[in-house]
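Posting for a labmate who doesn't have an account.
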Amino acid sequence: MSVEVLTFGCRLNAFESEAMRGLAERAGHRGAVLVNTCAVTAEAEKQARQAIRAAHRRNPAAPILVTGCASQIAPAAWASLPGVARVVPNAEKLRPEAWAPAGARGAPPPDAAARHPGVGQPSGTRTRAFVQIQNGCDHRCTFCVIPQGRGPSVSVPLDTLAERLRRLVEQGHREAVLTGVDIASYGADLPDRPSLAATLRRLLALVSDLPRLRLSSLDPAALDAEFWGLLATEPRLMPHLHLSLQHGADLILKRMRRRHRRADALALAHRAREARPDIALGADLIAGFPTETDAHHRETLDLVEAMGLSFLHVFPYAERPNTPAARMPPVPIPLRRERAARLREAGASAASRFYASRVGQEETVLFETDNRGHTEHFAPLRLTHGAPDVPRGTIRRVRAATATTDGLVAALPHEREGEAR
């Protein structure tokens, strides 16, 4: 029997869950339920607790193994839930020895995950894979519990990353997404303190047959001139940046203890378009942060337009225990939800405008399934109904014919067309 995995939270958690499944199975936990928790919101914690209770009711004999940020912050509370046999510390969950049976004399043989916690196994389809390059965070935003759950920033060395990417290419992956908690701060803990941009440049040179490299969420304060130079000159680095902006009002950004201000965000958008004029920008935004007024909220709405953002991830603020923001004067929960809904509406409109702007443009698409894929800008694209099947993992150039509310539609050209380079 295999290990059943229940994952809550971010893309990084999803990546780590696949690595842990293999470690737990090799350690002999077949038939167990592994729950990877998240502490970013109270709702994520609630869902994980409900899932544990439901798994125990469904199969009382199955041991439940719990790990992740929420269990790291309050391990005793999670250990007391029905059916929980073990709580694995977050910092150890990608080490084989952490999953060894209780009382075992030895542990499974070490692998890359043991040498460099956070590398684990590739996650994703055979077309796109997520590669963790960093874990933890050295910053202390007032709303965030991630440092409590994941600890300080730890970077994966370049040679390990290059080895991982080579294996992914050999397995047929055409795109890699570099992920972590704070990847823009990559390298500060390594001996020679390599920057993110320098590491990306070396990775692309060392793995020359990887067609596409994409980045997960970036802290705007950490992007330097070297990064913009690389973005301008390296076509394999995708023209799509997702920014951890969080808000559009300086006072709220200060109270969040963010390292950038509104003017910095606007300057970043200008710099990004100087480097890649067609770039797509996305952002994480929080609605209803403590002390946020209607005027502050309007500043965030206005920032969506001013920066030309195309894709938004919107979160209503949720109090997290032992964070400074939880002690600030709160915005009523219904108002938080209302403001989040407005931001999501603005995000939907921004995405529709971006899709419309791409109609008639030639797009390079990585096809993933059912004649659907994503463009270099990460815009969803599908072929017209009745189009010949395009093999999964194929990269093709097509011209966007129409736009819908959820992406682009294209027809294959009549002439024979080779695979995009």
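Reply:
Got it, the structure tokens are right above this. Confidence is low (pLDDT under 50) at residues 104-124, 415-421.
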